[in-house]
Each structure stands twice: as C-alpha cells, then as structure tokens.
Write a structure and sequence with these properties.
- It is built from 14 helices and 10 strands.
- It is an alpha+beta fold and 393 residues long.
- The strands form 3 sheets. It has a 5-stranded mixed β-sheet with strand order 1-2-8-5-3, covered by helices on one side. A 3-stranded antiparallel β-sheet has the order 4-10-9. Strands 6-7 form a two-stranded antiparallel sheet.
- It is globular.
Amino acid sequence: MHRTKLPSGVEAWLVTRYADARQTLADNRLSKNPAHHDEPAHAKGKTGIPGERQADLMTHLLNIDPPDHTRLRRLVSKAFTPRRVAEFAPRVQELTDDLIDRFTSGSDTADLIHDFAFPLPIYAICDLLGVPREDQDDFRDWAGMMIRHGGGPRGGVARSVKKMRGYLAELIHRKRQALPAEPVPGEDLISGLIRASDHGEHLTENEAAAMAFILLFAGFETTVNLIGNGTYALLTHPEQRERLQRALAEGDRGLLETGVEELLRFDGPVELATWRFATEPVVIGGQRIETGDPVLVVLAAADRDPERFADPDTLDLGRRDNQHLGYGHGIHYCLGAPLARLEGQTALATLLTRLPDLRLAADPAELRWRGGLIMRGLRTLPVEFSPPRSGQT
C-alpha cells in the first residue's frame, strides 16, 4: 500500500500486492461513484474519463454502485454471453482477415496498432452496438482522439466525447422510431437497451447513452492494447511465439486459450483498475484508508506478485494456475471479457498463421507507450513480413 500524489495533483492509495488487490476489487465499502471523493468539486473531473461529466455521461457502469449497477449490468449482460459471443465469431474473423488483406496488399511493412489492433475492436463493438457501417469511420476518428491520452490537441478528448454523446443520442432516437414490435434474432445492443427501457426497466435516455458510450470506450481500448501488447510480447519472446505457431499448425487451440490469458497477466491492457473511493474507514494491507480517500489497484503489479505467481516475470503461454486480474474481480469484473478474449485469440492466431515470419521493424527500446494513468498500450508497433501468397488464409 502506497500513498502517492498523482501528476493531476490528486492524492490516492496504490494497492500493489495480489491478495490486497483482490480484496480491494471486491470490497463494497469502496464505491465507484466519484461523489464519494473528498476532494473539492473541481478536482473530481480529474478522476474519470475526460469530458464525460460535461457530456452528461456519468451514469455508466464504471461510476455507479448497486442497486443501479446491478440493474444496468443485468440489461446488457445477455449481449456478452458465451453463446452470443460465439455467434459473433464469424464476423470477428471476417474483420480480422479484411484488415490483414488491406495492410499486406502491395506492402511488406505495417504499423500493427494503426492498421490492425486499433480498427478491429472499433468495428467489432460498433457492429455489436448497432452503429451503421457508414458511420463507423466517424467512431474510429473519435476513438482515436480518445486514446491519445494527451498526445493530441488540447481539449480534443472532451470534444470527441461530446461528439460521440450527440451522435449516440440521435442514434437512440432513430432506433426507437424504427424499432419493430418484436425482437429479431441477433438484435443489436442499442435496440435491446431501448426495448428494455420501453418495457418497464426504467432506463433513462441518459443511462442508455452512457451505457453505449462506456461499452464502446471500455470495449475497444482494452482490446487494442491486448492485441498490441500481446503481439509485442510474442515478437520479443520468439521461443513462445514458435511454440504457439506449432500448436496452431497442428490444430491445437488449447495453447492459444491459455496463451491469451498469460499475455493478459504478463503485460495486460489495463495497468490500474478504475477509481474507487472509501465510503467508510477501511484497512487494506495493514493501512487505514479514511472515508473519501481514492484507491487505485495496480493490476500490473498484482499480476507479477511472486507470492501468487511462480516465476512472475517469465512469459509461459502454457501457464495453468493463472487467475490473473487483467479483467478485474468482483461485481465490476469486465462485462466484455468473453468478446475481448474472442478478438484477442482470433487476431493473434490469424496474424501468426497468415504472416508466419512477422517480425519487429524497430528496436524495442525505441517504441513508445501511450500516456495516461489507467491503460497500458503502445503508440505504434512497426513490423515487417513476407506478404501472404494470393488466396492464403
């Protein structure tokens, strides 16, 4: 447990050990609602997503507690069941192949972040939400601004959030007007939210817009980083990458499944869990946390805790005892984890199969990581490869 002052000026407790982290993530005395922060009101905007307060998008799953959290999570959980995700698998494969076709066409180099890891989850979550194909490039632009974390023009993130909020409000209105009387197979998530709100679930328009926003925001950047960090880890651990390629060539996907979990543990997409605030005095790791104190769980540290993981700094794609915290723990466990796993497994397996000699085109020491407190991801990932032969899959 470490008390520290963050670059924003906010003082917070950092939780770094695995056992303490699990306790903290599941402790209902630690609220997700920024209203419990004891800092002055002007500081509260420093503890969430830039622009969400001004855009009236605060009532989403990362900012609320039970019973509202329970109610809203129940409404969207059916969109991320294993069965629904399995039905979505062919579309994820189609998107993956299309993106690889694009960046390998007439070229033997690419930036895997810009050309692959970034667009894949954006287009996938847009399809799931029901954003029309002709509007998805706008979402890609807004999302690109949102993940720069200070690397773009001043105020750019807040402006992108505001544009996205306006678009979602209009889209919800249009879908409500055109909603059929009965649900159709594979109905998109926004239509499902509207249908639930129209059938007594008491989902306000603000809640619907905030829900769509956070599913998009939380559902793409984490997967961008999973694919980017995971590919980078494989390219810098050639023996593990070759091990996985051999398994895939033999039709064994077991190592792919355990491998993605290990990549989540070894260098996961979320460095710190999102903010929590003590609603009463709490003791964690022998330290007393006072009412109103912010608490941040350092997932990256917990997942390298030698008291929990043998050889924690070793990448072992076959690691079995791997209850990592990459997707959190407790009632705020990542709702979209099944979809993220599908996208991660599909992206990595397809890359390694179609581009078997994929290699870094830069010195690892020259690569730069995006700024920001919560997420961990590369700005770029330059690679080289032999273009796949025509018709190769």
